[in-house]
Amino acid sequence: MAATVDPTYDDGAGSAFGLINQVAGGEMDGGSLADEEIDLFDRRIIAALRAEGRLSVTELASRVGLSKTPCQVRLKRLIDRRIIRGFRAVIDPVRLGQGHVAFTEVKLSDTREAALEAFGRAVLAIPEVEECHMIASSFDYLLKVRTSDIRSYRAVLGERISVLPHVASTSTFVAMETIKDADD
């Protein structure tokens, strides 16, 4: 479940994130930003919310050079088109005891569509896998796996990842230090 926002909800404080509703997550319908008629004000809204997602609509409007109502309408349109897919808290995994990061290459024994779909569905059930990317390389998938330590990673690899459908082999790279993270 991904949290999305109803920007038309008025909580009395002019909150930009409004009433949070739980809806099923999903991908955009394949269109790019270029396809979506994004103008300078939309880009300013996106940039402001990327930097500070909890801005009130009033503050957001002030920062992007619009009055409150047009800003609210644009925000709703960006959310409805799934250009803005939601708002979330950025959590420090190290402070939660989840500081070990490993990248796992996965090679499948079968790369026909049914096998790829089976692997894709099954990997979603492993909470330690933060990211899963299909790769054009000598292996098929690259996973970002977060655990508390190398022992926990070894258990996830042996008991959960290696038994996924059609896994032929894996190779692990352990991160020694994170220099840049998307959430920073």
Describe this structure in words.
There is one protein chain. The protein is α+β, with helices and mostly antiparallel strands and 184 residues long. It folds into two domains: 2-80, Arc Repressor Mutant, subunit A (Orthogonal Bundle), CATH 1.10.10.10; 100-174, Lrp/AsnC effector binding domain/regulation of amino acid metabolism (RAM) domain (Alpha-Beta Plaits, 2-Layer Sandwich), CATH 3.30.70. It has helices at residues 40-51, 57-64, 68-80, 113-123, 150-161, and strands at residues 2-6, 19-23, 100-108, 129-134, 141-147, 167-174. The protein has a four-stranded antiparallel beta sheet. Helix 1 crosses helix 2. The protein starts with a strand and ends in a 10-residue tail after the last strand.
Characterize the overall form. Answer: elongated
Q: How many structurally independent domains?
A: 2
Strand proportion:
15-25%
Helix content: 25-40%
Given as residue ranges, the uncertain stretches (5+ residues, pLDDT < 50) are 1-30
Structural class, judged by helices and strands?
alpha+beta
Q: At the first level of CATH, what is the class of the largest domain?
A: Mainly Alpha
Radius of gyration: 20 Å
Largest sheet: 4 strands, antiparallel
- At the fourth CATH level, what is the homologous superfamily of the largest domain? Winged helix-like DNA-binding domain superfamily/Winged helix DNA-binding domain
**SSE arrangement, N to C:** EEHHHEHEEHE
Spatial strand sequence of the major β-sheet: 4-5-3-6
CATH architecture of the largest domain: Orthogonal Bundle
Number of helices: 5
Separation of termini?
23 Å
Mean pLDDT: 85
Give the strand tally.
6
